[in-house]
């Protein structure tokens, strides 16, 4: 490990800029420890440097706010849990463990007042949704972050939730949302039932493809 780090240090000294792919190629060519190939479903990018882990974090965080609201409706939360706790925990996690400095600074500053702003579990879902759209807007035209196959447009789009959108601009992007409808949409989109439905749908699709392939190869 020591000699690996020493060589890595020597290698990066020769560069003023280094793309994620160049960095990964160097590591793959020298490291005897091979990192497992991660496969993403919802967060699969058009290449390995796009989407992936940060995307899964967002999905996890939104699912956490939804789960907390559902538990609160079922009176299944301990009485000392406050509606802002989930956002505060997310902020703590990002502040301590997310390795992108710019992301940390921005997200922590944006949510610094969450304890005073969030008074209901309903609001914590919308709070994270609004914050994520602020990040999307900021990153929309940044070359390195963006996957051209997954443009960072305001979420949800008209196709995803027509009722959620009250106003669109000349590009068809949402500029004003109906927050009651958006709340209902987010609750459905990030509920466990929905992710299980997506998995079932994927299995049915996979099964159909396998059957079609068998039928074709038997012809
Ligand atoms: C807390 C945090 C802060 C970040 N800050 C930065 C930063 O400052 N600079 C930077 O370069 N990168 C930042 N990132 C990474 C960046 O936001 C994206 O995660 C990354 O570029 C991958 O983008 P993506 O296209 O997969 O979609 P993501 O933005 O990761 O979204 C993941 C999924 O969430 C859904 N979604 C999108 N918008 C919303 C919304 N408003 N509400 C609910 N669901 C939504 C969509 O289904 C989408 O596929 C941050 C990530 C996190 C978790």
TrEMBL record:
SUPFAM superfamilies, alphabetized: FAD-dependent thiol oxidase (SSF69000)
Co-factor requirement: FAD
Catalytic activity: 2 R'C(R)SH + O2 = R'C(R)S-S(R)CR' + H2O2
Keywords, in A-Z order: Disulfide bond, FAD, Flavoprotein, Membrane, Oxidoreductase, Signal, Transmembrane, Transmembrane helix
PROSITE patterns: ERV_ALR (PS51324)
Transmembrane region(s): 198-216
Listed EC numbers: 1.8.3.2
Listed GO MF terms: flavin-dependent sulfhydryl oxidase activity; protein disulfide isomerase activity
Domain ERV/ALR sulfhydryl oxidase: 46-154
Presence of keyword Transferase: no
Swiss-Prot/TrEMBL GO biological process terms: protein folding
UniProt keyword annotation of Hydrolase present: no
Gene3D superfamilies cross-referenced by the UniProt entry: ERV/ALR sulfhydryl oxidase domain
GO CC term (a single one): extracellular space
Name of this chain's protein: Sulfhydryl oxidase
Organism: Adineta steineri
């Amino acid at each position: 490990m020591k000699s690996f780090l020493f060589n890595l240090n020597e290698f990066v000294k020769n560069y003023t800029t280094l793309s994620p792919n160049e960095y990964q190629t160097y590591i793959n060519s020298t490291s005897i420890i091979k990192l497992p190939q991660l496969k993403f479903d919802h967060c699969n990018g058009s290449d390995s440097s796009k989407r992936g882990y940060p995307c899964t974090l967002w999905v996890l965080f939104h699912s956490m706010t939804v789960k907390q609201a559902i538990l609160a409706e079922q009176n299944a939360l301990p009485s000392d849990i406050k509606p802002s706790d989930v956002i505060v925990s997310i902020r703590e996690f990002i502040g301590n463990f997310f390795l992108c400095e710019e992301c940390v600074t921005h997200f922590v500053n944006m949510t610094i007042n969450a304890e005073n702003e969030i008074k209901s579990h309903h609001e914590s879902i919308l709070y994270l949704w609004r914050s994520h759209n602020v990040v999307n807007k900021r990153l929309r035209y940044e070359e390195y972050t963006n996957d051209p196959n997954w443009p960072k447009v305001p979420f949800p789009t008209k196709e995803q939730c027509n009722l959620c959108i009250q106003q669109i601009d000349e590009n068809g992007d949402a500029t004003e949302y109906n927050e009651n409808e958006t709340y209902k949409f987010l609750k459905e989109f990030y509920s466990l039932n929905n992710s299980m439905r997506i998995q079932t749908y994927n299995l049915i699709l996979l099964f159909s493809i396998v059957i079609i392939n068998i039928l074709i190869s038997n012809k």
